[in-house]
Fold each of these.
Amino acid sequence: MGFTTKQVHAGVSPDPVTGSILTPVYQTTTFVQDSVDEYLSKGFSYSRSGNPTVRALENKLAILEGGADCTCYATGMAAIQAVLQACLNAGDHAIVSDVAYGGTYRLCTKVFQRFGVEFTFADTSKPDEVRAALRPNTRLVLTETPANPTLKLTDIEAISAITRERGIPHAVDNTFLTPYYQRPLELGANISIHSTTKYFDGHNATVGGAVIVDSNELDSQIRFVQNAGGVIMSPWVAWLTMQGTKTLSIRIERQSANAQAIAEFLESHPKVAQVRYPGLESFPQHELARRQASGFGAMMWFEVKGGVAAGKKLMDSVELCTLAENLGSVETLITHPVTMTHADVDEAERKRVGIIDGLVRLSVGLEDAEDLIDDLRRALDRI
Ligand SMILES: Cc1ncc(COP(=O)(O)O)c(C=O)c1O
C-alpha cells in the first residue's frame, strides 16, 4: 500500500468493544490483570511502561518509517536523550553533526559531557571528516539532515556505510522531511528520530518525539531506558499526534509546493542577498537532496541585504507569517535562529557552521502561496 493509505490505516483498527473508529484515549495509569499467572496477557500493566493509545501511534510510525519498532516520548529532545542514553556509557565517544538543532548541541555539551561522554561535532556532509573523527571508543554517529537551520545535508547512505563497517549505530534526526520524503532506515541508518511536535502533529498543538529503529534488540535497549527514566508521551498527545499523522503527506506536499514558490520569489527579489532551499538548483547539495529524498520539504532560510537590521525589520513587518519558534505546522512561521532557536550555541561555533547573524528561517505553512508571497513582498518593501 502507498504511504498515504498507510498513514490513515496502519497500526489502528476499530475499538473491539465499542466499534469506535478512532483508537480511544486510554487515560489511565494502570491495567487490571486477570490473574497472577496471566500477568501482562493483554499487553499492558502501567502507563509508564506502555499505553494502548501511545502503542497505536508507535505502531503506525514504525510502519511509516519501515522500522522494526518505535517508542514515543514527551518531546523530541526526550527522544534524542533516550537514544544517547541507550547507546552511550561514560568514557564513550559520539560524533554529532556540527549543525543541528540548538537543543541537541546543548544536550550533548551541557548534560552528557558532565557524565563523561565525549563528543566530536563534525561536518557530517563530508564522509571523510566522519571517518577521521572515529575513535576506538566511538559508539554512535548522530546526524541531522536537512540540518536546522542551515539545511546542510548529510549523505545518509555514505555515513551508514562507515558506521556499519564499525558496527556502531547511525541515528538520523529526520524531523525536517518526515518518512513521507525521506526514510533513513531504507538508506542504511539504524535509528530515525523525530520531534513529532513538527510535521506529525502539524497543528502547533502538542510537543512529542519518536524513535524508530531497525531491530527489536535496539528497540528493547531504548524502551528499557525510557521505562527507567519515564520520559513517555501522554495518551492525549499520542491521540492528537495520531490525527495529525493521518494527513501528513497531504500537508507536507502542499507546504513544500508553497516553499518552492516562495524560494523562487525570494531568489529573484533585489533586496534578498541569498536563499537556501533544497528545491532550488542553486542549492549547493541539490543533487543529494534529489537522490536521498523524494521531496524538498518546507523549510528554507534567506538573508536580506542590509544584514541583521534589515532581517529584523522584515521579521517585524510581516503580517501573515508569524514570528515564532516552532516549525512544521500549518501556520507559516518566521524565526531568527541566532536569538531564538540557536541562542545556546556558542557564537564562534555558530559562525563556524554557517548560522549567520542575518539568517531568517521560514517554516512554510498551508496558506495560499500567493498570500504568503504578498506578505513577504510588502515586508521587503518596508526595508
Ligand atoms: C530537528 C529538530 N530535532 C529535534 C527538536 C527538538 O524537538 P522538541 O522541541 O519537540 O523537543 C527540534 C526542535 O525544534 C528540531 O528542530
Note: The CA atoms of residues 102 and 344 lie 6 Å apart.
Amino acid sequence: MCSMSGMSKAVKGKHVTGRRAVGLDIGTSGVRAAEISLGKGPATLARFGQVSLPVGAVRDGEIVDVAEVASAIRHLWSATKFRTKRVVVGVSNQKVVVRQVDLPWLPAEEFRKSLIYQVQDYIPMPVDQAILDFHPLEEFVNEAGGRMLRVLLVAASADMVNNTVAAVQKAGLAPVMIDLTPFALLRGLAQMDELGLSGAPAEALIDVGASITNIVVHQGGVPRFVRILLMGGGDITEAVAERMGLPMEQAESIKQQTGMREKPAEAAADSSQLTRVIETSGAAFVEEVRGSLDYYLAQPSSVDVKRIVLSGGGGQLRGLAARLALATRLPVELGSAMSTLRIGKVGLDATRLALVAPVASVSVGLAIGVAS
Ligand SMILES: Nc1ncnc2c1ncn2[C@@H]1O[C@H](COP(=O)(O)OP(=O)(O)OP(=O)(O)O)[C@@H](O)[C@H]1O
Ligand SMILES: [Mg+2]
C-alpha cells in the first residue's frame, strides 16, 4: 500500500511472491532483520536478529562504508538463519523527502508518469536524479473547478538508493524492494491498535534512533504527514561524552542510567553538570519533535492527533515519554511491533524479545509490506 514501488525500479529482480518476507533495517548502531510469515490469523514473527555496526559505517542514515555494512549483514544472515535471501530494505535520511503536494488529477498510471514533469518545484534535488513515488491522500476540486489529487510525494536520491542496493547485494542478498522507513514504521506499529476509521483522530508514530528520528502521522493506517529528523539518542550521548570528557561507551551507560527528569522543574533544581547536559540536549530534541507536530497541525488539511506512540532505542530514554507528553499535551505510549504478532520459533526467550521489541518495529513493518 505505502511501499515505494517507484523506488523498487532501481532494484533488479521480482517482488516477493510467497507469504514470507524479510525486512532489513540498516541503522546507525546496527543492522536488524525480521522474517514474517503470513497464513491464517495474525502474522508470525519467524526470525529476528541484529548485529551491531562499527561507528561511522552508517552516518545520518546513509551508508558510508559499504564493505562494513555488507559484512555485518553477512554475519546477521549466518547467525540468524533466515529462510530467504530476498529482502525489503528501508531508507531514511536527508536524501529522501516527503512532501504533501496538490496536483491535477489524472488516472493512476498517467499520474505516475506525469510526476517527473510536475514536481521539480517541490523537491530539493534534480528530478532526473531522483526516484519518485507518491501516496494518494484525497481528491478535491480547486477554486478554478479543476479536479485535483492531494498526495504525499516521495523523492529519493537515486545515488543513495543505489548505494543501499549495492551494500545489500555485496552481502549476497537480493533486495526486492526499497521502502521508506516511516511507511514501514506505520505498518509495524499501527497494527498494535484498533486502526480507527477515516474521520477518526490521527496518531503520531515516532521512532527515535541513534541519529535519525522518523515521524509519521497517520489516520486509520493512512499516512498524512512524514518528517525525517536528523537527530536521535546519539546526540545526547555525544553531548555527554564531549562535555564530561568521557569515552562514548561510558557516556552511553551514564545517559541510560540517568535519563531526563519527568518534570522540568526537577531538572532545573539539579545543577549538576551531567543533568544540565542531558536536559539541554534532551529538551532540544523534544522541541524539535513538538515543532514538527505543530507544523503538521498548522496545515489546513490536518487532522487532530490523539496520541503519540514511541519506539526505537532512543525512545527508551528515561523521562523522554513524559517530557514529550508535557510538551505536546498528548498521551505518549511505548509501542511494540511484537504485541500483535504471533511469535514463532525465533529462538529468543521472553526477556530477550522484550529487549529487542522497541527496535524491531521498522524491520517488522518492512517485511509486512511485501508479505501481505
Ligand atoms: N535503554 C535506553 N535508554 C536510553 N537510550 C537508549 C536505550 N537503549 C538504546 N538507547 C539509545 O538508542 C539509540 C539507538 O537506537 P536505535 O537502535 O533504534 O538506532 P538505529 O536504528 O541504530 O539508528 P538510526 O535509526 O538513527 O539510524 C542510541 O542513541 C542509544 O543511546
Ligand atoms: Mg533506526
Note: The mean pLDDT is 92.
Amino acid sequence: MAIDELITEVKTLWKFDYGTNIKALRDLYEVAKKEQWNAATDISWDFEIDKDGDILDPEQDPLRDFDFIQALPDEKRRQLAVRRAAWTLSQFLHGEQGALLCCGQLVEAVPDIDGKLYAATQVIDEARHVEVFYRYIQRLDRVYPIDPALQTVINAILQADLWQMKCVGMQVIVEGLAMGSFKNMKKGTRDPLLKQIVELTAQDEARHVSYGLIYMRDELPKMPEDERNRVEDFAIMAIEAMVRPAVGRGGLGSQMEIYSDLGIDPEAATKEMREKFRSPKFRNARPNTFRDYVIPQLTRIDLITDRTAPKYRELGFEV
Ligand SMILES: [Fe+2]
Ligand SMILES: [Fe+2]
C-alpha cells in the first residue's frame, strides 16, 4: 500500500475569543453550510460512461493535432484518450487529498475563529471531492501516480512554516487551478456523469478560492516585510514548479508509461511536444488556467509586486 510520510511544521493556535472578527469569512461559513451536497446520493452513478465519447474536450487538448497522435489507429487513439483522461483526473484526485490535508492544517494554524470554522467546512468538501473522483476514475480506468511537480508543490505547502504560505499556495494557487480546470472541463466534456461531478465540485472550489482571497487581502498588508516577501517567493516557487514542465520542457513526464504501453515511441512523442510547446503562440492558443485564473487572483491580493513581477514575466506571464 503506497503511503508517504511527511514531517510538517504546523503551529496550532487556540482562539478563546469566539466573536466574529472577519465578517466576510463568517458569511462564507454560512454559505458553505447551506451548499453541502452528498457525493453518494446527489450524483447519478447509474449513468454508464461512454468510453468512445469525448471524456475530455478534444478542442482543449493541446496534443490534438500532433503527428504521433494522428498516426494512431482509431482504437488506440480512443484508448489513449481514456487513459489520458484518467491520468488527468488522477492528478485532481491527488490534489483533492492534498487540499484535504492542507485544510486540516488550516483549521489548526489560522489565528481567527472565522477562519477556523470556515476551514472545517472545507475539510468535508475536500473529503467529498476525494470520494467522487476516486469513484469516477475507477469506472473509467485506474488511478495513476501523482505527478512529481504537483507533489513537490503540495508537499511544500504542507511543510510551509507560515500559515499564510499554506493559504496562498493552496487556497489561491492550487484551488484557482482546480476551479479553472473544472469550469473548462464542465464546458468541454460530453460525459453527463463527469459534467455533474465537475459542476458541483467547481461550486465548492469557487468558495475555497474566495476564502483565500478574502483572508489574504485582510492579512497580507498586516505582515512584516520579511515574512511577506517569503510568501511572495513561495507563490513564485509553486507556480514555477508547475509551469516549467507544463510548457513541455519535461516532455511526457509522468505520462510516459501510458504512451509506451500503447506502443507509441516516447522519444518521437517527446521531441514533437518539445518543439511545439516551445512556441508561445501555440501555448497561448488554448485555455491556460495559470494565465486565466491564478495570475488574476494573485494580482487581486497584490501579491505580484515590483520585486517579483520580472520573475512572472520570465515564466511567460504578462503582469
Ligand atoms: Fe476540492
Ligand atoms: Fe478545494
Note: Residues 86 and 140 are 7 Å apart (CA to CA).
